[in-house]
Amino acid sequence: DAKTTQPTSMDCAEGRAANLPCNHSTISGNEYVYWYRQIHSQGPQYIIHGLKNNETNEMASLIITEDRKSSTLILPHATLRDTAVYYCIVRVAGGNNAGNMLTFGGGTRLMVKP
Amino acid sequence: AAGVIQSPRHLIKEKRETATLKCYPIPRHDTVYWYQQGPGQDPQFLISFYEKMQSDKGSIPDRFSAQQFSDYHSELNMSSLELGDSALYFCASSLRLAAYNEQFFGPGTRLTVL
Prior knowledge:
The structure holds two protein chains of two kinds. Chain A is mainly β. In chain A, 0% of the residues lie in helices and 46% in strands.
């Protein structure tokens, strides 16, 4: 899996948008960008993923740059319950692939403040 | 919707004892992953199974073994427990041939070795 770089921590005011950046300059053409988050001591939770197009679901939006070397996860209206560690993970998706494990490392600790 | 079930949720053992952790994947999921998360650390991949066969192996100590049974549940067996084995152990499941292979995590088992 390609290496990713994220800020160690970020703060966000409740009700405002949280923009979490991720650099993945060595991403390969067949690798997707996945985002997971882990609320304190709970199991990691899948948020969203994308290949090259921007994606949106009920939880967040994912903006991927045209060269795919970086991306931004956007939580449009952050709440206190969004306080968590957010992990950006690059991996090959789907199919009968070995190596489908997730490699967690260097996530961003997002603190949403009242 | 049914989620990944892990049991027990908490386990306290003495050094050199054995422990067995159980994981029940989401129905129809054929792949199970085990992750270990030490205090203040990121989750680390241990081992995975697909259709009851070992698929990938990560940083799993030789003292640990695991298997996936015919009903797709999995067990992680840990012997000669050490203080350093104290951690959260997460199980995740996925459908291998699903388009994007998202992993869904259980609530974890907190193992404390005294």
